[in-house]
Amino acid sequence: xxxxxxxxxxxxxxxxxxxxxxxxxxxxxxxxxxxxxxxxxxxxxxxxxxxxxxxxxxxxxxxxxxxxxxxxxxxxxxxxxxxxxxxxxxxxxxxxxxxxxxxxxxxxxxxxxxxxxxxxxxxxxxxxxxxxxxxxxxxxxxxxxxxxxxxxxxxxxxxxxxxxxxxxxxxxxxxxxxxxxxxxxxxxxxxxxxxxxxxxxxxxxxxxxxxxxxxxxxxxxxxxxxxxxxxxxxxxxxxxxxxxxxxxxxxxxxxxxxxxxxxxxxxxxxxxxxxxxxxxxx
Amino acid sequence: xxxxxxxxxxxxxxxxxxxxxxxxxxxxxxxxxxxxxxxxxxxxxxxxxxxxxxxxxxxxxxxxxxxxxxxxxxxxxxxxxxxxxxxxxxxxxxxxxxxxxxxxxxxxxxxxxxxxxxxxxxxxxxxxxxxxxxxxxxxxxxxxxxxxxxxxxxxxxxxxxxxxxxxxxxxxxxxxxxxxxxxxxxxxxxxxxxxxxxxxxxxxxxxxxxxxxxxxxxxxxxxxxxxxxxxxxxxxxxxxxxxxxxxxxxxxxxxxxxxxxxxxxxxxxxxxxxxxxxxxxx
Lengths: 282, 282
Fold this sequence. Notes:
By secondary structure, chain A is of the alpha/beta class.
């Protein structure tokens, strides 16, 4: 299938690399292009390993747009040295995003440092880091996309747990510099998230829309239990219509961390994603 | 130690039965009385097994107050037959609470029925059930205490995830009929929970205050991973002061689901709880 001609209904579908992490970058590029998918979300580690310029060329040559780079962040350390190191690492992430020609760097805030019981203070340190990084990113054509993660990650991964909290921080900066990620897996349960989606959309701050379904039981560590679209209890189409209603017109990125998907043939997984996306989201 | 004379600082401490579930009811009564603890929270299944009247007498004879009965609820079924059965079961729970002379029946809402993606609708069914049960409970001197559980339980256990949601439902009823539970394990991450605690306290709706700490990694199924007081990242004393500041003067119930605690000698666990409570909460 030639690049640029998308099967009808798949124009907005982007496959996040982590969803088919059994694939190398060349396999991802070839597999998505062959399936008629026009965009992908990438992760830093495999891009660094392959080389940023080389990855950018591979995507370009395969007719693929990079919708986001995952992920910078982890801003919650207290020690000045660790904080300086986090800022350096995030400047590198911004450079990588610019190298990949994606305008969106996803940021995961970081959890509470060991022994720290002041979650409000930790969130404040996230905002402080953004104040340093947002101008740097903007100069390189990259927008920082602050992602609220489900509250079950609040202590060890991300002190920003709701779209409301993410917006409270993002709104301290110009919308073209700092946006937010709306991810159905993290937000589906929150009765306030619809109103905050409207608030984010009205200000043009929805930088990224990701979809995964919620299934139980959660696995130990709760990181790798995300559900294939349609397998869980999230009203995915309702959420897609909600971000659209808020004025979002960007990609719909499928990001599913699932050992069950990783154990299967990548092309089969992508075919299933297309079918599920069409049935439950698009 | 004679009943009624509490060691200083332990006047408000209540031990929830599930925290030391290695103990039988007589062991719980004897162990708490011996440790100078004046109140306990009980669970329906062991009370039913022992006999409600007999359990009530045991507690009375041991000088123990029953601060709450856990738990009724599970109101989210759609089928009329299942809904009627849930109401019957909750009337029985109210009768049991009255029999134990506790004024507080803790309610866990229930999760989303299989295939249901309408969480707002499920929350509405919780409110409908309360409208039937609240007057029945009030006639028997029992207040229903709606408990928001952490959002990680939203799909399979409790569609009410925040104190704000719980209050939105509770406030449809008189405060003396329907209150809420403030449990640090479920609410610690929520930046809006402090304001809702004030809102609940001002209306006299804090029916129960429970404490447990948050520790990671979470175990598979995420039910049994609660932390001993002081082992995690929750500002427990800050929360106790917060409910006090909201006007709450009732018991502080220690409810920790932890296989590590259950594997130990009950008296040793209770002694540790007293030490941790004094250091981190009281």
